[in-house]
C-alpha cells in the first residue's frame, strides 16, 4: 500500500553519445515552462529530450511527458495528411479540397443560421503563432470559440482578476526562497508540475515551512513539513475560519489594509460567525489545527500560496478561492518578496484594436459552456472546429460523442485519430509544438521563446496557416494574419501595452526569458502589485465589481450534486492527474502507458464496505455515465471517495472519466467540476452497493 509513485519524477536525461545537434526548447505541455534540450538525429528527427540544465527555472529537471512525446512526433499514430470520411472510412484528400469544404460550409451555415451556429473547441491550438491567428479569425469570422478556461481555470481567473486586476500569478515560484510559509492547497505539484517541484525543496532549504492542505496524502503532502487532511470540497469553510481568526486576533496587516484594500469591513462581517469550531465540523480538521494555522499565518510573514486544481476544478471553487486570496491580501502577503499567489495562469492581456471596427464580426450567439451539448442536440449548433479532444476532456463525454453525430460538419485539426478526430468528417494534420516556433509563458510569469526544433511531419500545418487559408477562401480580410511566428509575436506585443518591450531577442538573450509585465520604456516585473493594483480603484477589491459577499457553499449543495440523491449515490468520485500523462497526447506513447495505466484509488475500509479487493474491477456510476477500472487500495485517500485519472479514452478502449462528470459550472466562477461528484460503486459483475 505504499503510495509514492517513483516513476518518472524529476527525470533528467543526459545527452546520448555522439550527439551532433542539440537545440534549446521550452516544454509546452503543462504551462510549467520547463527548459528542454532536444537532440536532433541525422535524419532531422528528435532522438532524445532532456531537461535544460541552463534554464534557471527547472534547472534541468523535467517530468516524463516531454520524453514520452518523441513517439508522438514521428508516428506511427500521427495523422499525416488531410482526410475526409467516406462511408465511415477516412480517405486522403488534398489541403485544397479540405479548406474548400470547410470554407463553403462555414459560409453557408453562418449566412443561414448565424455565426453562432459554428463553434470552436480549441483546448490545444498550438503555440503563440497559432493562438494569435485564432484571435484574428475569431474576430473577423464571429467564431464562437471555447478554449481551456471552463475545463481548467475559469473560476481562478475570475476571482483573481476581479480582486487584484490581473488573473496571472502575483509571485514567481522562485520567490519561495524568501517565504516563511508556502501554503499548497489542493496542489499535488510533485506530480502535476514535476519539473518545477524542486522549488518547494529549495524553499525548505531556505527556511520556508511547506504546508499542504489536501484530501489525499499525496506525494507533495509527503514531502511537506505539515499535511492537513481536509474533507472534500470544504476548503471554503477553512478559508473563512482562517479569516475569522486572523481578523479577531488582529493579525492582519492594518496599514496594508488601510491603504490598499476595499471591502475589509464587509469581509469581517461575512466571516464573523465562522469560528474554528464550526469549520472543524465541516472540514474534519481538528479545531486546534485550524487555530494554530491561523496563528502561524498571522505571525509568520511573508507567505506564498499555491492553489492547485483541487481547489479550482470543483463545484464550489469561487468562494473557496475568494476566501484564501482575501486571506493573503489582508495579511499583506502580496507585492513583496516571498509573498503572493503562484499560479500557472499566464493571461498577459488581449491585443487592443487588433482588427479595424468595420471588419469585426461578433458571434450571433454564444451559449454558456454548460449549454453547449444541449445546443448541439437541439440543432442550434451545426458545425464544430476542434483542436483538442472534447470527447475526452469535456464533461459528459459520452453525451458529447453522441451530440457530435448531430452536427453537419465536424473538423478536427489534430496529431492523432483520437476520440474526437475519429468522429470528425474532416481531419487535418496539425504541427506538434516542437515543429512550431513561438513564445511560451510559464509558471514564473516568464515569457520564453521556443525555436522550431524539427520540420513538420507529413503535410502537417500550424493552426495559424489553417485559419488564414479558411479566411482567404471565405473572402474575409486575411491581411491581418502574420506569416511567421516572429512576425506574429512582433504584432501582438506591440498591441499589448504591458508586454510591448518583450522582443524575441530579449527572450532569447539569456536562458529563462523575461518576466512580464514589461512595457516599452518601463522595466521587467518579477512581482506584481509592488506599486498598486490593476483594479479600477487601484486597490484589492474584496467586494469585487458585482459586490459578491463571501459565503460558504457545501459541495453537496453546489452544481452537479444538489439534486442528486445521497441515498442512491453515497460516494464521491474525483479525477486527479499523474506526472506521466497530460490529456490526450501522452495516451499515444508506449512509454506513458508503461509508466501509468488507469486505475481507481480506494481506501481499504471503503473496499471492505463495497466487497472489492486490490486489482479487481470496480464499476463507478453517476447520473451521467459509468466506468469500470481496476482498483488500487491505499490509505492515502479518504474513505468513501474514489480517485482516478482523467486522460484515458479511445486509445485504451475506455470511456473517459469525464463521462461521469456533469455538464454544470461552478457558480459564478465558471469552471466545470472534476472532483467531489456524487457516485455509486460496486464490483464489476456484482450488484450495486
Ligand atoms: S512539468 Fe510541465 S512544463 Fe515541465 S516538463 Fe513536465 S509537462 Fe513540461
TrEMBL record:
Keywords: Iron, Iron-sulfur, Metal-binding. One of its GO terms (molecular function) is molybdopterin cofactor binding. It comes from the Bacteria. Residues 20-77 form the 4Fe-4S Mo/W bis-MGD-type domain. The keyword Signal does not apply. Coiled coil: none annotated. Pfam families: Molybdop_Fe4S4 (PF04879), Molybdopterin (PF00384), Molydop_binding (PF01568). Belongs to the prokaryotic molybdopterin-containing oxidoreductase family. This is Anaerobic dehydrogenase, typically selenocysteine-containing. It comes from Desulfitobacterium dehalogenans (strain ATCC 51507 / DSM 9161 / JW/IU-DC1).
Amino acid at each position: 500500500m505504499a503510495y509514492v509513485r517513483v516513476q518518472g519524477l524529476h527525470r533528467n536525461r543526459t545527452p546520448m553519445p555522439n550527439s551532433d545537434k542539440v537545440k534549446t526548447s521550452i516544454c509546452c505541455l503543462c504551462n510549467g515552462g520547463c527548459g528542454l534540450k532536444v537532440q536532433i538525429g541525422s535524419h532531422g528527427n528528435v532522438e532524445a529530450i532532456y531537461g535544460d540544465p541552463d534554464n534557471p527555472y527547472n534547472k534541468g529537471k523535467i517530468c516524463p511527458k516531454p520524453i514520452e512525446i518523441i513517439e508522438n512526433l514521428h508516428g506511427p499514430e500521427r495523422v499525416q495528411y488531410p482526410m475526409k470520411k467516406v462511408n465511415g472510412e477516412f480517405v486522403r484528400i488534398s489541403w485544397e479540397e479540405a479548406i474548400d469544404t470547410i470554407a463553403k460550409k462555414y459560409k453557408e451555415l453562418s449566412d443561414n443560421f448565424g455565426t453562432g451556429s459554428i463553434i470552436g473547441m480549441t483546448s490545444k491550438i498550438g503555440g503563440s503563432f497559432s493562438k494569435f491567428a485564432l484571435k484574428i479569425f475569431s474576430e473577423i469570422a464571429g467564431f464562437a470559440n471555447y478554449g481551456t478556461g471552463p475545463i481548467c481555470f475559469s473560476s481562478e481567473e475570475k476571482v483573481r482578476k476581479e480582486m487584484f486586476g490581473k488573473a496571472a500569478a502575483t509571485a514567481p515560484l522562485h520567490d519561495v526562497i524568501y517565504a516563511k510559509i508556502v501554503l499548497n492547497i489542493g496542489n499535488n505539484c510533485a506530480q502535476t508540475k514535476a519539473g518545477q517541484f524542486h522549488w518547494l525543496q529549495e524553499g525548505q532549504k531556505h527556511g520556508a515551512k511547506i504546508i499542504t492542505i489536501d484530501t489525499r496524502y499525496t506525494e507533495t503532502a509527503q514531502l511537506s513539513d505539515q499535511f492537513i487532511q481536509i474533507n472534500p470540497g470544504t476548503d471554503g469553510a477553512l478559508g473563512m475560519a482562517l479569516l475569522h481568526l486572523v481578523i479577531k486576533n488582529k493579525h492582519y496587516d492594518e496599514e496594508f489594509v488601510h491603504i490598499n484594500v476595499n471591502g475589509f469591513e464587509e469581509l469581517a462581517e461575512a466571516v464573523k460567525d465562522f469560528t474554528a469550531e464550526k469549520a472543524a465540523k465541516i472540514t474534519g480538521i481538528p479545531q486546534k489545527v485550524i487555530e494554530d494555522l491561523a496563528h502561524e499565518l498571522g505571525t509568520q510573514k511573508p507567505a506564498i500560496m499555491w492553489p492547485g486544481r483541487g481547489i479550482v476544478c470543483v463545484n464550489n471553487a469561487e468562494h473557496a478561492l475568494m476566501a484564501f486570496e482575501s486571506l493573503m491580501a489582508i495579511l499583506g502577503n502580496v507585492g513583496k518578496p516571498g509573498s503572493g499567489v503562484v499560479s500557472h495562469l499566464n493571461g498577459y492581456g488581449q491585443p487592443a484594436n487588433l482588427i479595424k471596427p468595420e471588419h469585426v464580426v461578433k458571434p450571433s450567439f454564444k451559449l454558456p459552456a454548460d449549454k453547449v451539448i444541449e445546443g448541439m442536440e437541439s440543432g442550434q449548433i451545426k458545425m464544430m472546429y476542434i483542436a483538442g479532444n472534447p470527447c475526452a476532456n469535456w464533461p459528459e463525454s459520452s453525451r458529447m460523442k453522441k451530440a457530435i453525430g448531430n452536427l453537419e460538419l465536424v473538423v478536427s485539426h489534430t496529431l492523432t485519430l483520437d476520440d474526437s478526430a475519429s468522429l470528425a468528417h474532416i481531419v487535418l494534420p496539425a504541427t506538434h509544438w516542437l515543429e512550431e516556433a513561438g513564445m511560451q509563458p510559464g509558471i514564473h510569469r516568464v515569457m520564453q521563446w521556443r525555436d522550431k526544433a524539427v520540420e513538420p511531419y507529413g503535410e502537417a500545418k500550424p493552426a495559424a496557416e489553417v485559419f488564414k487559408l479558411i479566411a482567404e477562401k471565405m473572402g474575409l480580410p486575411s491581411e491581418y494574419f502574420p506569416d511567421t511566428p516572429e512576425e506574429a509575436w512582433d504584432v501582438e506585443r506591440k498591441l499589448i501595452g504591458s508586454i510591448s518591450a518583450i522582443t524575441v531577442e530579449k527572450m532569447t538573450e539569456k536562458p529563462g526569458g523575461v518576466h512580464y509585465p514589461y512595457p516599452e520604456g518601463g522595466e521587467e516585473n518579477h512581482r506584481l502589485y509592488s506599486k498598486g493594483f490593476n483594479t479600477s480603484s487601484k486597490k484589492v477589491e474584496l467586494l469585487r465589481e458585482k459586490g459578491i459577499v463571501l459565503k460558504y457553499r457545501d459541495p453537496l449543495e453546489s452544481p452537479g450534486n444538489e439534486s442528486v440523491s445521497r441515498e442512491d449515490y453515497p460516494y464521491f468520485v474525483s479525477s486527479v492527474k499523474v506526472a506521466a500523462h497530460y490529456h490526450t497526447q501522452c495516451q499515444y506513447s508506449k512509454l506513458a502507458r508503461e509508466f501509468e495505466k488507469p486505475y481507481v484509488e480506494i481506501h481499504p475500509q471503503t473496499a471492505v464496505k463495497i466487497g472489492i479487493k486490490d486489482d479487481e474491477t470496480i464499476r463507478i456510476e453517476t447520473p451521467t455515465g459509468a466506468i469500470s477500472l481496476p482498483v488500487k487500495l491505499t490509505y492515502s485517500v479518504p474513505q468513501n471517495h474514489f480517485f482516478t485519472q482523467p486522460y484515458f479514452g479511445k486509445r485504451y478502449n475506455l470511456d473517459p472519466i469525464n463521462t461521469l462528470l456533469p455538464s454544470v459550472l461552478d457558480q459564478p466562477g465558471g469552471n466545470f467540476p472534476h472532483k467531489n461528484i456524487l457516485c455509486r460503486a460496486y464490483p464489476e459483475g456484482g450488484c450495486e452497493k
